[in-house]
Amino acid sequence: MTHIAKPAFHHPNLPVNRLGLTHRDYEGVVSTLCAGCGHDSVSAAIVEACFQLDIEAHRVAKVSGIGCSSKTTNYFLNTAHGFNSVHGRMPSVATGANAANSELLYIGVSGDGDTASIGLGQFCHAIRRRLNMIYIVENNGTYGLTKGQFSATNDKTSKNRKGADNLFESIDLCTMAVNLGAGFVARSFSGDKQQLVPLIKAAMRYRGFALIDIVSPCVTFNNHAASTKSYDFVRDHNAVLDRLDMVPERDEIRASYDEGTSADITLHDGSVMQLHKLAADYDPTDKQAVLPVLERHRQSGEVATGLIYLDPDECDFHDLIGTANKPLNSFTDKDLCPGNDALQAINASLR
To answer: Cβ(213)–Cβ(195) under 8 Å?
Structure first.
């Protein structure tokens, strides 16, 4: 197999962020996905988000499973930590790593098959435990590595490229995530960088489980006229719920908007999410109202995108189980084995 390496040289005047890094420093190897694959646009959006937030790659852990989507962790943040797990098992790997070191930024990239079929159980439990991670689903409704079978997220009205019907109802990952207790739930389109980059930035700043379900068309198997995961369909049926700006903690500039059209939500690290409501009756912090809105758009054949749900009271796995403030992998033998007196005290407390 021929390996195509990126050239080592670059233009000396490339823009740099506060760390002195360019976009090139946040890239990975050359993509081997099909030309025009939506997944490459998602990788580019992740690169842009990390560049804008001045993220240090060695503070990031990338995790993935199996599928075209799970290959994409190789296409961004080449110097970050990474683990490519088996099919559907990415959440358990992310849970173990997060339990050991809570100070890393965990970016999980999965697909609709890896998440909604073989990995559905693990996906559900990562949500209910509120694992502190960004879980990105590159959702194309098809198994791109195994010749285009329908996946569990493919809409029942969507036919395959040969015209065959889909016999089963689809799984809506965003609806499931809201029901199971995710604190940050969003949906976007790989072709809408203006919407996607701020959503990724906000998810990176959120403490708790953050899902971004990204419709990412498969140009080989699921980009035809009868597909609801095609470029044309999403462009024609995109129902934008809101627009999001992400203001990092270091910035003190606050924009001013007409009353009733926006809301500022401060995250735990001081960053501010500025929500601009485009749908007059939509409030992403009202959990009871979110699900009917999603169902209404689904029944209308529309793809609802934007920040779907946000729980401002951030909470993650470590908050729930009460772990120590420092990473577990930093504990010494003395910390873990406090001696016989401590053991006797524990035993006495249980009598």
So the answer is: no
Q: Does residue 83 lie in a domain region?
A: yes
Residue 74 lies in a domain: yes
Note whether 222 and 148 are within 8 A (CB): yes
The answer to the question of residue 202 being in a domain is yes
pLDDT category at 250 given cuts 50, 70, 90 is: low
Distance (Å, rounded) from C-alpha 54 to C-alpha 3? Answer: 30
Q: Which two tokens stand for residue 115?
A: 């998440």
Coil/strand/helix, residue 313 = coil
| Helices assigned H by DSSP within the chain | 38-52, 68-71, 90-100, 112-116, 120-128, 173-180, 193-205, 231-237, 287-299, 317-321, 333-336, 340-349
Token pair of 147 as six digits: 């010749």
> Domain limits at 116?
23-322
Give the number of domains in the chain: 1
Which of 210-219, 248-257, 259-268 has the least mean pLDDT? 248-257
Cα atoms found within 13 Å of the Cα of residue 161, Cβ hemisphere only: 16
Q: What is the 3-class SS of 159-228, one letter each residue?
A: CCCCCCCCCCCCCCHHHHHHHHCCCEEEEEECCCHHHHHHHHHHHHHCCCEEEEEEECCCCCCCCCCCCC
**Residue 34 pLDDT class (50, 70, 90 cuts):** very high
For 319: left if phi > 0, alpha if psi spans -120 to 50, otherwise beta; the answer is alpha
Coil vs helix vs strand at 88:
coil
In a domain, 5, yes or no: no
CA distance 294 to 23: 35
Residue 202 has a CB neighbour count (10 Å cut-off) of 28
Q: How far apart are CA 120 and CA 61, in angstroms?
A: 22
* Plot region of 66 (φ>0 → left; ψ -120 to 50 → alpha; else → beta): beta
CATH, residue 162:
3.40.50.970
